[in-house]
């Protein structure tokens, strides 16, 4: 009979159920209610109202997560934040690297364009200036073989009776100023026989030698030396006041191989001292140095002339 009564009470209490899907604050949905077998009504069948209410009341005291689960959840949240933060930092670094690379590429492209423009741009509207002509200074000297130096020496390397290719002629002669008033120094060098020219009754040499001017320094020359004609040789350099010199020198054969007259056309050096620039004596086979110069007297020489 109690079961029937209870059954009747259940039917009467059914209309008091909460609307489907309605969940009160801090309450779980109806799907999380205790099963009917565990309802307090089965324990206390006499309390019909309590049973009816208890059978419908959600269990708010149940907690689905324990502290360990919450800690794990918070750890996951923190881990997720850490990953997000690391990703953001990495993204910033990549962005900065990309910006730097773009800036470097832009700067390099700009430099390339500037360099290209510098080398390939053409200036319009202004005529091109002619290069400045270097100042040319003339220097005249005499080379005289006084037969007191054992010069020249003939080395017959060709081992032929006639002058032939390969024969060598080392030499050293005295050097006087163009006005023949000063002993300047000496010449010294080497001539290599290139060709014997029978029809000219002479030879062609390749000459490499220097002119020494005491404390003033020296001038080096190289080029063709013909025993039967005048030639031009290149001025290849110098020392002392002649440092950085370039130009050419005209060689005039007066008496082979005893007297020669040279006219230097020098560039690239400061003005020459007046001591070297006296008015030259007209070249001829009969010219002779002044006695003071020939005797190397104090007023007939330059400072520390080369002997």
TrEMBL record:
Pfam families: Allene_ox_cyc. GO terms for biological process: jasmonic acid biosynthetic process. Residues 1-23, 288-307 are annotated as: Disordered. Coiled coil: none annotated. SUPFAM superfamilies: Allene oxide cyclase-like. GO terms for molecular function: allene-oxide cyclase activity. The keyword Chaperone does not apply. Keywords: Chloroplast, Isomerase, Plastid, Transit peptide. Its EC number is 5.3.99.6. GO terms for cellular component: chloroplast. It catalyses: (9Z,13S,15Z)-12,13-epoxyoctadeca-9,11,15-trienoate = (9S,13S,15Z)-12-oxophyto-10,15-dienoate. It is found in: Plastid, Chloroplast. Belongs to the allene oxide cyclase family. This is allene-oxide cyclase.
């Amino acid at each position: 009979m109690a079961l029937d009564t209870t059954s009747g009470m259940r039917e009467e209490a059914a209309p008091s159920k909460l609307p489907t899907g309605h969940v009160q604050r801090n309450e779980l949905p109806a799907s999380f209610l205790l099963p009917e077998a565990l309802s307090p009504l089965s324990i206390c069948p006499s309390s019909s109202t309590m049973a009816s209410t208890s059978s419908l009341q959600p269990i708010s005291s149940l907690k689905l997560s324990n502290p360990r689960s919450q800690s794990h959840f918070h750890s996951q949240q923190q881990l997720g934040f850490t990953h997000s933060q690391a990703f953001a930092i990495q993204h910033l670094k990549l962005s900065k690297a990309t910006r730097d690379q773009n800036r470097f590429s832009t700067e390099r492209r700009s430099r390339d364009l500037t360099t290209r423009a510098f080398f390939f741009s053409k200036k319009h509207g202004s005529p091109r200036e002619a290069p400045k002509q270097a100042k040319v200074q003339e220097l005249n000297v005499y080379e005289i073989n006084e037969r007191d130096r054992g010069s020249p020496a003939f080395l017959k390397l060709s081992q032929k009776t006639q002058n032939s290719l390969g024969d060598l002629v080392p030499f050293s002669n005295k050097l006087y100023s163009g006005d023949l008033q000063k002993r300047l120094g000496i010449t010294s060098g080497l001539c290599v026989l290139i060709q014997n020219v029978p029809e000219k009754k002479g030879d062609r040499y390749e000459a490499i030698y220097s002119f020494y001017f005491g404390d003033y320094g020296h001038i080096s020359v190289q080029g063709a030396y013909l025993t039967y004609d005048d030639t031009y040789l290149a001025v290849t350099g110098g020392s002392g006041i002649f440092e950085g010199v370039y130009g050419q020198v005209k060689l005039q054969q007066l008496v082979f191989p005893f007297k020669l007259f040279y006219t230097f056309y020098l560039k690239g050096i400061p003005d020459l001292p007046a001591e070297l620039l006296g008015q030259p004596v007209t070249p001829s086979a009969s010219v002779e140095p002044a006695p003071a110069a020939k005797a190397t007297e104090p007023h007939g020489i330059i400072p520390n002339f080369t002997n």
